[in-house]
Amino acid sequence: MIGVGDFFLINFIGMKNTIAERIADFIKNFPPFDQLSKEDLYAVAKVVTITYLEKDKMVYAVGDALHDKFYMIHKGAIALTKEINAKLETVDRFDEGDVFGLRPLFAKENYATNAVTEEESILYGIPLATFKPLITHNRAVVDFLIESFASNTENPFSKEIHGSLYDNRLEVLANDKELFELQPVRYIKKVITAKANAKIKDIALLMQKHQIGSIILEADNLPIGIVTNVDLRNKVITGEYTIEAEVNQIMSAPVLCYPKGVSISQAQLTMMKHNISHLCVTADGTPNTKIIGVISQNDINVMRGSNPTVLMKAIKRSQSTKQLKHIRKKIMVLLKGFVQQDIPLTQTSKIIFELNDATIKRIIERCIVKMEKQPPVKFAWMSMGSQGRKEQLLHTDQDNAIVFENVEADELENVRAYFLLLAKKVNKRLNEVGFDFCPADIMAKNPKWCLSLDEWKNQFIQWTSNTGDDEILLSSIFFDFDVTFGDANLTNQLSDHIFEITKSNHMFLSKLAASALRSASPLGFFRRFLVEQDGEYKDFFDIKKRAIMPIVDAGRLFALSNQIKNINNTAERFEKMAELFPENKELYLSCSYTSKALLKFRTKHGLLHNDNGRFIELAALNKEEKMKLKRCFNTIAQIQESIKLKYNLSNFK
Amino acid sequence: MMGWNFNKKTYPEYWEAYLHHFEKKEKKTLDSSRFVALDCETTGFNFYIDRILSIGAVSISKNEIAVAESFEIYLKQSHFNPDSVHIHGILQHGMIAKFSEEDALKQFLIYIEDAVLIAHHASFDIKMINAALNRMGLPNLKNKVIDTMNLYANTRIKSNFIDKSAHYSLDDIAEAYAINLMDRHTAPGDALIAALIFLKTTALLKKSKSFKLEHYFLKSTRF
């Protein structure tokens, strides 16, 4: 009889292992595996285990017995956390290509940190039994691993990051302010330099090409001067020098140099003291050795991640999806700060909206470049749902669509094909950055939602003239669109069209009104919170379905029936209503307040639990919060009453 | 020739050994059972004419895929369909070690034991394997089978305006889940993608109290 053992023998001798080969192809790009021989790589790849973990799952916890393997991140991100002064702090973060959980390689004591997935992740487990014997004689590998294990401030960043000019400067996320100041500053390693006798004009072109504000001038790799856009402004635009002059006429020299390892606070103090925005990093910290990098004020600000202007700049300059993903994480840090400091929600949402909007714009811009062909006709990228209403604070799903100019029938499908391909690229990258795919496929890459202007108009006519529940649902998603990119003329025509066809369409409006009542006031009999009855969120309160949607639906209904154009934001819609109907001012203003309060509530809880904030654990609310929520619910009940009266829906249950 | 029982067919030893694994009759659960995600590359879609070119499979236990326990085998071909070469890239006389249909299936049975089988559009792969077994005079596979398409479809929002009968290709799902598309259309590559989809969808689905693994077992009449 043939046993399993025999089978593996066969497998070992005669068979090909395609999966192991692919794993070897992946891991060989990242340290320390880049130091292994081909045979060793394959030997490791053959015994890898693959695990999938959802977001917020523990790989291991403090005090757990050591695993018989360490890990490499194939996809996703991991945070190492531990309790410092009774507060859970993140001590390190890793992402794709990084190794972590190295303790079993070097120590015998149980794990000293928690490893938690920050996003859903696919991990490779590298068994020690195979790995350890391979590296005992490989100094480079051992050194790298010891260094990574010993240091919690420095990520063992991947090769890819080593290699590129912009990538490495967004890595550090400040967690602890004090510690942060003392961290060594990350510097740009691939420095753009020029010769001192270059023409000023060429320097300006170089700056434009790389979107940077300063260039170091070198001779034999030694820094001899630096020129910044301030020099251009003060010495060239003023007419003092012509653009044909040599740059050494206007450069600053000598250059302030530092060795690598200078702390963030030291770099900042030097910059403040000398009123400059750039430092040069050289091998020994003097201008007499080779340039190895440059530190800029801007990069330090981005590392701090607390300034919307800097983040905006970083978005506009970003050169990869990975960078945008890091920036998005900082946007979340910023949002957390706003909420903690109780900054008014109106301002908070405007800033976060602008940053999200810029992120999406940047992605679309980059994807058009990747298409290697300009769009065949004018188009607009529409964001719908919460982003369209400027109410998207946390990471939620992406809802979007494309409208393009009308074209001849025989060209229609060609034109659509271009936009579908573009949308596919954009949707994919939005997902990578943190806007999850829409589970209902309301995305521009879906051919149903990538239409010409006339097709959209017909679609809307269909929904509003032959209206069932699905059509109401679709209208309520699609009518709240906002142009994110492209030609606003197209979207304006679409808005006009919507108002046109709904104007005296009482049938449609009353159906819309009925649907705004579909979730009854969230307070049940005996004025208790209605909670979910089943599933993962049993006994949680669904703030989106039971509170936010009713108020958003009401806002949309009033906007459509009163021809309030170009206002998508629910709070602003009600403010407009208060203006139009002063006799009901009080109710409308309290609706406006309620919509903001609910959004803030959701945001706060989402940040607390690192999710989309939709489900709220009632037990975790304090009395004041419960009161506040109940007041919001009262307003919802009132506005629902008024809808019932207005649309004669008194029998509606 | 006394006592020869014509009604009871005798099967080769490896088939009896395979059947032996099913005597345990243990309840299959996500955390305790072994799963094998598999994919067959074939010369075409006809169960009678077309043949299996290769089988790739990975084994999952305790939510972990062990690469060391993956399975990959290439079959000698009697039937050759030049039309499908551009998809799977397997030529009739390639360089890889190849096995006869019987030897390949024998090894496959030893490998799968009583594991729950997982594949995308599983009924196709299982029917192909059953057709091969039947040619060898053997009955159909005894394993429980799960189709990743059903798992995925159940994670989607249930709404009227999403086509309920929509079919999701492996490419669709891999894209939605941002699973690397490299090595598509090789049996082991597709098996690995199916395994990842299995891990991801079950992680989502098992959160519901009403989740039962056996709801997803395909009826044996489908093969």
Automatic annotation (TrEMBL), chain B:
All residue ranges annotated as the Exonuclease domain in the record: 34-207
GO terms for MF: 3'-5' exonuclease activity; DNA binding; DNA-directed DNA polymerase activity
Keyword vocabulary terms for this entry: Exonuclease, Hydrolase, Nuclease
GO annotation terms (biological process): DNA replication
Gene3D superfamilies: Ribonuclease H-like superfamily/Ribonuclease H
Pfam families, sorted: RNase_T (PF00929)
Keyword flag Amino-acid biosynthesis: no
Subunit annotation: DNA polymerase III contains a core (composed of alpha, epsilon and theta chains) that associates with a tau subunit. This core dimerizes to form the POLIII' complex. PolIII' associates with the gamma complex (composed of gamma, delta, delta', psi and chi chains) and with the beta chain to form the complete DNA polymerase III complex.
Function in brief: DNA polymerase III is a complex, multichain enzyme responsible for most of the replicative synthesis in bacteria. The epsilon subunit contain the editing function and is a proofreading 3'-5' exonuclease.
PANTHER family: DNA POLYMERASE III SUBUNIT EPSILON, PROTEIN NEN2
UniProt name for this protein: 3'-5' exonuclease
Organism: Gelidibacter salicanalis
Biological classification of the source: Bacteria, Pseudomonadati, Bacteroidota, Flavobacteriia, Flavobacteriales
